[in-house]
Design a protein that fits this description.
Blueprint (H helix, E strand, L loop, with lengths): L7 E12 L2 E12 L3 E5 L6 H8 L4 E9 L2 E2 L5 H7 L1 E4 L11 H6 L9 H7 L1 H5 L10 H13 L5 E5 L7 H17 L3 E5 L3 H7 L2 E6 L2 E7 H6 L1 H8 L3
Parallel strand pairs: 3-8, 3-9, 6-7, 7-8
Antiparallel strand pairs: 1-2, 1-4, 4-5, 9-10
Length: about 240
């Protein structure tokens, strides 16, 4: 999907959220416009995945607002957020052993630019495995399927949670090329959570770094990528 407008898609204002009474995120504020690409960085356990889950309505919102196209999402369930244009690729991938690859894709399909043939062109391997069950795929193939499934809802915003985690280097390179095509060539609006900071910065225009549930850095991706000392200090990259 080619989202190259400048309209505001997502706005978080002074968000504090967590699980039950536990607060993981504190005072999170930022906006995301159509066509933006954001790397969400930080050490393990600082709240990156929790922030994506909060956008999807899967945490307890203690304070603040999450707005989608200026509409408050507080009482909007997760499935409605998906229907409204949020595509989510969870860290766990969530494959269903009773569904084939093709069924994983068709069961969530919504009208739009992305259909099963376009997804298969992006991921030829999935077409080859279309009749295999979700649990019969390799880790890399499952990640491809998770991304393809999110594209089938024709999202205006794609949330990628650790898309490269635990994958072989050759698969990482393949997925990097796919994400580059979506973001850089296709202009898709994305938020990428990724432990490999330099990899994520190379895919995105903007970077936010979290520490202890708070934003401690917000800049364009290239300037953070160029400042090795600051990047190492903020995320302790290898």
């Amino acid at each position: 999907m080619n989202n190259k407008g400048t309209g505001e898609l997502l706005a978080l204002d002074k968000v504090s959220a967590g699980y039950g009474e536990s607060v993981v995120l504190e005072n999170i504020s930022f906006t995301l416009n159509e066509g933006d690409s954001l790397a969400l960085l930080g050490r393990n356990g600082v709240g990156k995945s929790t922030l994506l889950l909060t956008m999807m309505g899967l945490t307890h919102l203690h304070r603040g607002t999450v707005k989608w196209r200026a509409h408050d999402l507080r009482h909007v369930p997760t499935y409605r957020r998906v229907h409204n244009g949020m595509g989510w690729v969870p860290q766990e991938r969530l494959m269903y052993p009773s569904l084939t690859v093709e069924e994983h894709l068709t069961v969530v399909a919504r009208p739009g630019e992305w259909d099963i043939e376009k997804v298969y062109r992006l991921f030829p391997r999935l077409k080859e495995r279309s009749n295999n069950m979700g649990n019969q795929l390799s880790g890399g193939e499952q990640q491809m399927l998770a991304i393809a499934r999110a594209l089938m809802v024709n999202p205006q915003l794609l949330l990628l949670d650790e898309p490269m985690e635990g994958l072989a280097p050759i698969i990482v390179q393949e997925l990097l090329e796919v994400i580059k095509r979506l973001v850089i060539d296709g202009g898709m609006t994305v938020i990428v959570v990724e432990q490999h900071a330099r990899m994520a910065l190379g895919l995105t225009k903007r970077a936010i770094v979290l520490d202890r549930g708070q934003i401690v850095h917000d800049s364009d991706s290239q300037s953070l990528l160029d400042d090795r000392e600051m990047l190492d200090r903020l995320v302790a990259v290898a």
